[in-house]
Write a structure and sequence with these properties.
The protein contains six helices and 20 strands. By secondary structure, the protein is α+β, with helices and mostly antiparallel strands. Bound molecules: 4'-deoxy-4'-aminopyridoxal-5'-phosphate.
Length: 309
């Protein structure tokens, strides 16, 4: 499966807003050392029909970018607030009035590897969430990848390092070749790890179970969010522990969660259909409530939203 990155007309690059087509670098850049973040801003409508954009959970995303930089030895020559301001500038310059995906990218400069390029491309996306969204319920056949998720003593899965995504691309390529919609990784111990760019949650007997960080997963902001809101707001018990392949097959429901994948239900794994209802009740409830939070309709979680003035 090919991944198309549709940058918008403008992005922010090394201190200024530029046209994305002019955000050019040397062909000799050490791209294998790059890191990035994936953040989304959602539209919030008010009762007067006006809308504004809110960035969802800026802080944990930008903190993770700093951790990714630290492990890769990259020094970011801006503050976290500078990058928030830069992100807002890029969004405003494009004049977006719809949902926006934000992908800060950082990598060493070819001519001076001790300094870095910082680029913030942005583009619009269609959400999978929302009560009337038929795409949410589309059938999705997944397979267990024959590729294991990268072991944390080889590459750090807890950092968003581009190199980690070659592992994901191979798994997706295999899934596409075998006519599946997506892949789930096992970790190097053989336990369920994550998807190709999203974490996985399973549901069994009304409990949500998800693998621990030590199962070679990214410390996902969406996963953290769900681990908080499922028990506290929806009364759904959660458990963080290793999941065996057989347990995944025996789940009543399973879904992927992440900024990009939002909440994406899974119909089957290795052609074993999960549960009786698709999407399952817990998956649907979680997705509906998550969408409410993103749209700014849950008062107690408005502090997770940073509005773009
Ligand atoms: N795992 C991987 C490998 C990812 O790339 C992502 C997307 N950032 C996730 C999990 C989900 O993380 P988050 O909820 O922070 O987007």
């Amino acid at each position: 499966m090919s991944v198309a990155f549709h940058g918008a007309k403008y992005c922010w690059m090394n201190g200024e807003v530029v046209e994305t087509k002019d955000a050019l670098v040397s062909a000799m850049e050490p791209i294998h050392l790059g890191i990035f973040e994936g953040i989304k801003a959602y539209v919030e409508g008010d009762i007067l029909g006006r809308s504004r954009l809110n960035i969802f959970r800026w802080k944990p995303h930008i903190d993770r970018l700093w951790r990714s930089a630290a492990v890769c030895g990259l020094k970011i020559p801006y503050t976290k607030d500078d990058l928030l301001e830069a992100t807002m500038k890029a969004i405003r310059q494009n004049g977006f009035e719809t949902n926006v995906y934000i992908q800060p990218r950082i990598w060493p400069r070819a001519e001076a590897p001790e300094s870095v390029h910082v680029v913030i491309p942005v583009w619009t996306f269609d959400t999978l969430l929302g009560k009337e969204n038929a795409r949410f319920s589309r059938q999705r056949r997944f397979m267990i990848s024959s590729w294991r998720r990268i072991a944390s003593d080889a590459l750090p899965p807890q950092s968003k390092t581009w190199a980690n995504y070659a592992n994901c691309a191979l798994a997706l390529r295999e899934a596409t070749r075998l006519h599946y919609d997506g892949a789930v990784f096992l970790d190097n111990r053989g336990f369920v790890s994550e998807g190709t760019g999203a974490c996985i949650m399973t549901v069994r007997h009304g409990r949500v179970v998800t693998p621990p960080v030590s199962a070679s997963i990214l410390e996902s902001v969406t996963r953290e969010t769900l681990l908080e809101i499922l028990p506290d707001d929806l009364g759904i018990p959660v458990e963080v522990r290793d999941i065996t392949r057989m347990e995944l097959y025996a789940s009543d429901e399973a879904f992927l969660c992440g900024t990009g994948w939002e909440i994406t239900p899974i119909t089957s794994v290795d052609d074993i259909v999960l549960g009786e209802d698709y999407p399952g009740a817990v998956t649907k409830r979680a997705a509906e409530y998550y969408a409410e939070i993103l749209a700014g309709r849950i008062e107690k979680h408005k502090n997770w939203l940073t509005s773009v003035p």
